Amino acid sequence: MAQYDVIVIGAGPGGYVAAIRCAQLGLKTACVEGRDTLGGTCLNVGCIPSKALLHASHMLHEAEHNFAAMGLKGKSPSVDWKQMLSYKDDVIGQNTKGIEFLFKKNKIDWLKGWGSIPEAGRVKVGDDIHEAKNIIVATGSEAASLPGVDVDEKVVVTSTGALELGKIPKTMVVIGAGVIGLEMGSVYSRLGAEVTVVEFLDAITPGMDAEIQKTFQRTLKKQGLKFVMGAAVQKAETTKSKAKVHYKLRKDDSEHVLDADVVLLATGRKPYTDGLGLESLGVEISKRGQIQTDDHWQTNVKGIYAIGDAIDGPMLAHKAEDEGMACAEVLAGKHGHVNYGIIPGVIYTHPEVANVGATEQDLKEAGRAYKVGKFPFMGNARAKANFAGDGFVKLLADKETDRILGCHIIGPGAGELIHEVCVAMEFGASAQDLALTCHAHPTYSEAVREAALACGDGAIHA
Ligand code: FAD
Ligand code: NAI
Prior knowledge:
- By secondary structure, the chain is of the alpha/beta class.
- It has helices at residues 13-24, 40-45, 47-65, 81-105, 159-162, 179-190, 210-222, 278-281, 317-331, 360-365, 381-385, 414-426, 431-435, 446-454, and strands spanning 2-9, 29-33, 109-112, 115-119, 122-125, 128-137, 141-143, 156-157, 171-175, 194-198, 226-228, 231-238, 243-249, 255-260, 262-265, 269-271, 304-306, 345-347, 352-357, 370-376, 392-398, 404-411.
- It has three domains: 2-142 and 270-338, FAD/NAD(P)-binding domain; 156-267, FAD/NAD(P)-binding domain (3-Layer(bba) Sandwich); 343-454, Enolase-like, domain 1, CATH 3.30.390.
- Helix content is 32%, strand content 25%.
- The termini are far apart.
C-alpha cells in the first residue's frame, strides 16, 4: 500500500496546482486522474481549446473586415475546418503534456484511473488502495442538463461537442447567453453560421454590470448574432442531423420554434462528484451539489478537503488554481488565503469583457456612496489605430475615500487590462493612485488611467 502526505483527486487547474504546490512545500504527493491526459476540463475541453478557436476565428474576422482598410488587399482566407481543429488539438496537447512534465519535475505520482474514498485517509484507484494523511477533492464540474433537451454531442451538444463538430453548421441555436454560449456562439458566427442565442432572462451574462451587458449585446448583434430574450426553452426535437428548439416567451406565453443544424446547450455547469463515495462518508453537500467546506477548504470530515468547481464560488480556472495553492499551503502548516472579493472574470469574445469587484447594482443595493469614472476606447489613440475603438472602461470608487471598489471593461485587451486594477485593489489603492501612475503611450492601458482620472478632476481625452 503506497503512503502519501496528500492525494489530490482530479488534475484540473485546481487539482494539478494543489499537487504541484504540495510537492514544492515538501509533501509527498500523488494526483488521481481518470482522463488520459492531465489538465482537467480547462486544458482538455474548456478554457484552452475554446480560446484557440476564438483566436483562429478572430483572425478570420480581422482579415474579412479590417485588412482591406489597412491596405492589405487580396482574397480573404478560406476556412479549413479540419486544420483548425487540429491546431486546437495541438494546443491542447502542448498544454496537457506540459503538466505531465511538471508532475515529473516535482516528483508527483500520477495515479491513473478514477478514484474513490472508501474512508478518510484512503483513496481507491482501480483495485489499489493508497493511504494519505490528507485528501483534496478537485473533481470539477460537468454541463448542467435541461429537461426536454437530450444531448447527443452531435446535433445537440454541450461545450465539449461544440469544440469538435464534424463541420461548421449553417444554423446554430445556443441555449443560454452566458459565457460559454457567447464565446462559442461568436466562434461559429465568425465562421459563417447563423447563430441565434435563446436566453431565459432579459439581459445577457447575468450578474455583470448592466451598462456592460447592454453594450456587449449591442456589439454582438452588430457582429451578426441574433438574440431571443426572456424565452424559456421547452424542448429540442432532433432528427438525424437537424433539431427544432421549442420555446415560450415569458412576457406573453407565446410558443415558437427555431430550426437548427446544431443546438448548443449552455445553461450552466454543476459540480461533478460521482463515484467518490462522499455520501457514505457523510461529507456535507449542498442542494446544488457543491461540497461544503470551511475557510480552509476542509469538509466536515477531517482530512478531506475540496476546491475548485466542486465547491461554492465562481466556476473559473484561476479561482480553482488559487484555492489549490492556498489549500496546499494550509496542509503544509502555512496560511493559505484566497481573496474572493478580487477574482477577475473575463469573456474572450471580441471585444473582450472583463470585470472585478463590485458592480454599480451591488453598490446601490449596499447603499454605498460611490463615484464612476468612465472612458471610451474611442478616445484611445492605439485602439483607434487598431480598429478597436468600441467599448469603455468603467471604474467605481468610494465617494469619500476614493478607494477602488470595482472595474468593468468592454474593449480591446480587457482581459489583460483588468489585472492592473486587481493589483491596485489588492493594495487598497485609490482611483487617484492609478491616475497618478505614468502609463506608456500609446497603449490600451491608458484607457484605464483615463477612467481613474475621470473619478477625479476629469479624463484628458474625453
Ligand atoms: P476540472 O478542470 O473540471 O478538473 C477536474 C478533473 O477531475 C477532470 O480532469 C476529471 O476527469 C477529474 N476527475 C473527476 N472525478 C474524478 C475521479 N473520481 N477520479 C479521478 N479523476 C477525476 N474558466 C476560466 O477561468 N477561463 C476560461 O476561459 C474558461 N473557459 C471555459 C470554457 C469552457 C468550454 C468550459 C466548459 C469551462 C471553461 N472555464 C473557464 C471553466 C474552467 O474550465 C473550470 O472552472 C476549471 O476547469 C475548474 O477546475 P477544477 O480543477 O475545479 O476542475
Ligand atoms: P452561465 O451560468 O455563464 O450562463 C448560463 C446562461 O443560461 C444564463 O444566462 C442563464 O440565465 C441561461 N439559462 C439558464 N437556463 C436557461 C433556460 N432554460 N433557457 C434559456 N436560458 C437559460 O453558464 P455557462 O455559459 O454554461 O458557463 C458555465 C461556467 O463555465 C460558468 O460558470 C463560467 O464561469 C465558466 N466558463 C468561464 C469562461 C471564462 O471565464 N471565459 C468561459 C466558459 C465557461
